[in-house]
Structure formats: structure tokens, C-alpha cells
Amino acid sequence: MSETYYVKTFGGLEITNDNVTVNIVELFGKQLVNLLQVLLFHSEKPVQKDELIDILWPESKNPSSALKFSIFRLRSELNEIDFFKDKEVIVTTRKGYILNPNLDWNIDFVELQKAYNQINEGAELLDEKEFKIARKIFRLYQGRFYASPSQLHWILQKQEVFRQMYVKTMMRTSCYLYTQKRYDEMMLMNYQAVLIEPFNEGLHYYYMKGLVATRNYREALKYYDELNDIFLSELGTGLSKRFKQLYDIIIADHAKEENKDMETIMRELSNRDQQNQGFFCSYEIFKYFYELLLKMSVRNEQNYYLIMLQFSDGTLDYEKVGVDFDRVKRLVSSCLRSNDLFTRTSETQLLLLVDCQTEENAHLIIQRISNKFYSIFRKKNYRMNYSVHKAELDRNR
């Protein structure tokens, strides 16, 4: 039997020996999990009793008894695992408690730290040797450390430290692969990375750059729109300026991608759903249409009005809104005409651009939306507020 104990702390807490894996989180209670985590993070030196008490039992009336009892229970529970049977896993020393240093421990965050230190000794741009070391970091990092709902602050700090190591390494690796024109390899790694860190914009940025470099323009535009909607929905803000610049590149490159015959163009232009409802688009596309339509309106003597709709679940706590927003979006679309535009500007807001000669006509549209909104959500405590402004271009530009 192998004497090496492989400890996975990223994305869970597991110990493997001789192809047998034990899920510690499922096996132990959260207090024992927390205690074992502290010992793992101090595996190179004993943890003093006072330090353990400060971390795990800062408000206990009898912390010494709690510590002794928890150490006893943890030892007993570990000895119930077959590959730890009859082994002294936790050693008591004059300086405190430590995982038995005579056992061969292979802990993932220790290996990751070593690899990270190796690739941070050289230049900012990785070379091929450092790239291979970086791949080890990606293999080891499978998500943040396990943290119980009442987890202590110390583990959350360590979560962030190692998350930053992972993201920084991923950015440097993406830059290296991009300069080497290994776009498919870069995109695969970034796709796997965003599954772990879905709201890191940099990971998405390099994936989208890969789509542009491989001339997948349509997929890149679709990816941009979907990602922008997700960021608005989950974070309340859209993508950054560098994405907008990349978006402009996609539009420009896509325009000169290939020549099309008129029949193909007519078919593509007519391919959109012709239902009589509003057109929903990303905020970036909305801004383009806004400028275009308002320039045309000067010549055609048309008026456009902006309508801002703000939704809440009745608590007026917009940070914790519980509105079914996809359903609201479909509702608003059905109340608009096919030449009306709308977009999402935050987690709880929709912005409409409607073709109306007077403000009274804009209020009729709002009334139509309001009636349908309160009819559909009459059993819920949802609320809709609005404001109306005449749409105008900045004459000073």
C-alpha cells in the first residue's frame, strides 16, 4: 500500500490513498472539518493551543475543554478511515498539535504555492517551461476552499489569496498562448477556467479574443451579448470599455469577412422573427441604434422617448430583488411594437426607446405595460416605477 496521502482542498476536502478517496466534508461535522483545515494549513509546524482557540472558539466559555474534546473526536474519526487505521494522524507536541510529519502528505495548495513561486521568479511573459508549470496550477485548482455557512474569516482570506494566484496565472498563460497564436488551446483553457470563476471578466476577454483571432465573428458577437446580459443580471453592471473596443473590432472585421450576393443578404435580413413585438438587445447595440434612429428622426420629423422601468419585489431593496426578470422581459416585449427597442441597464432596470409623437403616447405604452404587469403578478408583491424623457442627441459632440 502507498504511504502517500493526497489531500484535495480546492473545491472540497478529500483525502486519497492507494486510489481510495474519502470525502471529509460528507464524513465529518463542520467543527471537525474546520479543525482539520487549520491543521492542514499549518502542516509544517505545530499549531499552538491558544492559536487554535483564537481561530475556532473565540467566544467559548470553556475553550480548552472544547479543544481537547474536538482533537479527541477528530483523531477517532480519522482512525475510522481504513487507510488511517492504527496510525497516529495528529501528534501532540510541547508547542501544540500537528499532522504527523512522519506520514507522507501531498497537499494540493502546498504544491500550487510551490509552482506559483517558480513561475513568478522570471519575466511577466511566460516561456514554454513556465507554461508547463502553470498547467500544474490549473490541474490543482478546482475551485475555492470548502467553507461552511458559518465559516471563519481566516479560511475566506486564504480562498481569495489562492483565487488571485489562479486568475493571475491564467491571465499570463492566456497572454502567452495568444502571442504564440495557439488560439484553440487558449480558448479551451479559458472555457474551463470560466466554469470555475464565471464572473472574472479577464477570462472571458481572452476567450472572446480567441474567437476573433479564429474569425468566429458571429459566435463572438453572440458571446458578447449573452455575457453582457449575464453581467447586468448578476452584477448590476455591463462589460468594461476593453470589451466595447473588442466589440468594435469584431464589427469592423466581420464587415469585411466575405462578399455576399444579394439573395444571401436578403435572406439573412429577413431571417429575424417578424412578430409584432419589441426588439431586445444588449446595451452596446442599443446605444448604436439610439444614435442612428435619432439622426434619422431629425430628417423625418419623428420624436422618440426614453422610458426607464424600475422593478422591485415590494421591499424596495434593489440589492436583493426577487423579481422574475425573464418573465418581465417577455411581458414588456409583447407590449411594444416591432420598431421599438429595449435593453437591460441593471439587475432591476429596463430602458425602452419608443417612437412617439407626444409624451402622452409614451404614457399610453407605459399604461399598457403596467396593466399587464400587475395582471400577471397580481398575487406577488412586485412593483414597477417609471420615468419618461424625450430622446435627444448631444448637440455638443
TrEMBL record:
Keyword DNA-binding carried by entry: yes
Organism of provenance: Holdemanella biformis
One function term, GO molecular function aspect: DNA binding
Domain OmpR/PhoB-type: start-end pairs: 32-98
Record domain Bacterial transcriptional activator: where: 137-248
Protein family membership: Belongs to the AfsR/DnrI/RedD regulatory family.
InterPro entries in UniProt: AfsR-DnrI-RedD_regulator, BTAD, OmpR/PhoB-type_DNA-bd, Sig_transdc_resp-reg_C-effctor, TPR-like_helical_dom_sf, WH-like_DNA-bd_sf
Keywords, alphabetical: DNA-binding
Gene Ontology process terms (BP): phosphorelay signal transduction system; regulation of DNA-templated transcription
Keyword Flavoprotein in annotation: no
Protein name as it appears in the record: OmpR/PhoB-type domain-containing protein
Pfam families, alphabetized: BTAD (PF03704), Trans_reg_C (PF00486)
